[in-house]
Amino acid sequence: QSTIYRAGTLGRRPVVPADFAELERRARRVSSAKAWAYVAGGAGEGRTMRRNRAAFDRWAIEPRMAAGTVGRDLRVDLLGTRLPSPLLLAPVGAGALMGKDSDLAIARGAAATGTPYVFSNQGCNPMEEAAAAMGDTPRWFQLYWSSDERLVDSLIARAERIGAGALVVTLDTTVLGWRPQDLNLGSLPFATGLGIAQYTSDPVFQQIVAERTGLPRDRPAVTLGAIRALLAMSRNHPGSFWANLRSPTPRASVETFLDIYSNPGLSWEHLATLKQRTRLPVVLKGILTEKDARRAFEIGVDAVVVSNHGGRQVDNAVASLDALVEIRAALGPEPTLIFDSGIRTGADVFTALALGADAVLLGRPHLYGFALAGAHGVAEVIRNVVAELDLTMALTGVRSIAEITSDLLREQPLSV
Ligand code: FNR
């Protein structure tokens, strides 16, 4: 934090706004209407997004004076890895809506601060390339459970090969949420086409497309380049994406993707096979109730992410922060709980940690940093959030993340 203030004193201009409201405003200004609807939008009437934020406004932090907080240590051990802070970047699909090679830039920005990035299964660059952009910084992989089990195993094997620190299986998107703004603008084909890189780069996916089309298996059925070219052709003509997809192979590829990227039949029986299928720590993302959290730990997973997908799936769902409080109270201090949905500032991170999170994922804010200033923007958003967390610790009398407890909060709705 003092580094940030000193840079200001020396006349260095920040790369991105230091407050979320302005960050959001400027990111909106540089985005197309379609990109903005997809990234900033939520499910239905947007009530889950509003609840996520309102839940933070119910808790007040209690500053504590003269506690001698020099030498603060923000590091945490998470699933066997030492991290510089309890912050990770959430998996985001279709980030290329906001700029070229989004996952490479976000990976670089994360790595510049030693912050792990969770690569999305719907990412815009193959995970091998994003991993190469991160050097030694931890990276995780997020899986959507395909309806083709061969693809599940192939993606897990690739995650192991890129040295992923954990496998995150997202449970809340077996079907896509009701997103009226995207439906109105016809933007889903773009998002779909952009988020296909993990598939076109997968040999098993190529084999599945070949099986469906009867084409030979010795060369890729479709390349990411072909899909991108189609998207570029369709950009100025809403609705023409599918028309341009006349050529049978890319069309078969996109259709195959849509058919098999998720499995609406996903059940706890599938999930119970996970621990035998990989040596990576397993994390289930999208847990919102005590019952589901208990089941997750019963089948031996290493952590859960308490999340409602940033309010993008079920409209008027419970706030993720309220779910965190309930789940921590029910399960006790031991199980590893990661939290996301609604984190905007360092004070928010502090509140989530105080309410029982071991670490948090940051979603939209890092994408906005990317939209404004590429990898630098991502790194600066991270530094700002961590700096505010650090100063909040200084002023609440804590020197380590473990000392951030609910004793430092009181329930007091914000009504100003
Ligand atoms: C997401 N999220 C997400 N989650 C996931 O598991 N796989 C994915 O591919 C995506 N894709 C995605 C795209 C975009 C544009 C957004 C904004 C979000 C959800 C994400 O991981 C995280 O749960 C939320 O973004 C957290 O909420 P906030 O921080 O955005 O409020």
UniProtKB/TrEMBL annotation:
Keywords: Oxidoreductase. Pfam families: FMN_dh (PF01070). Its cofactor is FMN. It comes from the Bacteria. The keyword Plastid does not apply. The keyword Ion transport does not apply. Belongs to the FMN-dependent alpha-hydroxy acid dehydrogenase family. This is L-lactate 2-monooxygenase. The lineage of its organism: Bacteria, Bacillati, Actinomycetota, Actinomycetes, Micromonosporales.
